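WARN no homologs supplied; continuing
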Amino acid sequence: MSKESILNFSQAKGEPAWLQDLRLSSFDKMAEIDLPHIERVKFHRWDLGDGTIAENEASANVPDFTALGDNPKLVQVGTQTVLEQVPMDLLNQGVFFTDFQSALEEIPEVVEAHFGKARPVDEDKLAAYHTAYFNSGAVLYVPDNVEIDQPVEGLFYHDSTSTVPFNKHVLIVVGKNAKLTYLERFESIGNGAEKASANISVEIIAGAGSQVKFSAIDRLGEHVTTYISRRARHGADATVDWALGVMNEGNVIADFDSDLVGNGSHASLKAVAVSSGRQVQGIDTRVTNYGSNSVGHILQHGVILERGTLTFNGIGHIIKGAKGADAQQESRVLMLSDKARSDANPILLIDENDVTAGHAASIGQVDPEDLYYLMSRGLDQKTAEQLVIRGFLGTVITEIPVKEVRDEMIAVIDTKLEKR
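OK structure emitted
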């Protein structure tokens, strides 16, 4: 690791002085701050970054785009943007969806004003590392009062034949009273088996009165060790509804947060995860109520196969002054192997009176009565288990607004189950 390599990369990209300075100061802070604390997950020996900052060469593993629709989308393979598509009517309304470098040139004031506002750049060692070493990304900007009817898609592919770190920053700025449906994929492609690390940060700035539906499917490969942070900062009466599918094959630690800063703001975080093989996944899902009458609900369902490990930490924190706030959470884990390991940890931190809060957590196996009922109707045990699991995870899947993406998530789950 060296400041020289960071500075050379930043200067080669023509980044503004404020970003160069931020990168270099983040590098300095890495030595002073700790790794994030994720309850009951031992990840401190994982390879989460070797201090390399570089770009990918053009990849031969480029997906076929011929079947993609005409809705707004951005596609990147590694650090390279291979497709950018925004309809003219949205461009005329001031909507931007482009790679990070182009955004610094086209809407520099938006990037500078909002970068790091949802997730502080020096919150912990991995946040500081990300700020110093991210090598690509995207910016989506929706001005005040603009409503986008079509889903906006961000497709970010990791080339499994490359050792270049997959360090990506996605910044989504949604103006006052704007409305957006956003679909995101992080996925490994190609037949390579190169070991790589990923450090991904997704920031959402939800302006007052805005409405955001955010869906994601994560499918990074077994040779990728991943840290991913998704964080939203809510203005007054802003709503962000999350539907997240954590379907990676490698070891993962994830941090999904909503900071309900504005009064009357609302967050609904729904996440499903499947762990298999010897995979370890630790997922922190947090809602912090700062504003009065703010509402934050967490729903997490997970399935563990073989020797997999899955930890859900649900954290609801009501800050002093957030009168009338509501924080609820539920975490459920289904284990399909005696060798699987799981934790479901509900955590409530209440610093105010006149609030509502509650939690529920459970870990168990498939109900034998459910299997018996289905098998008595002629299904074999494997098919019966698949149907039970689909139903168990369906509470999140049904929240995804596009049928093709719902079908894709079901197909991913079925593929994992068939490998047993």
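The first strand starts at residue 73 and ends at 77.
OK
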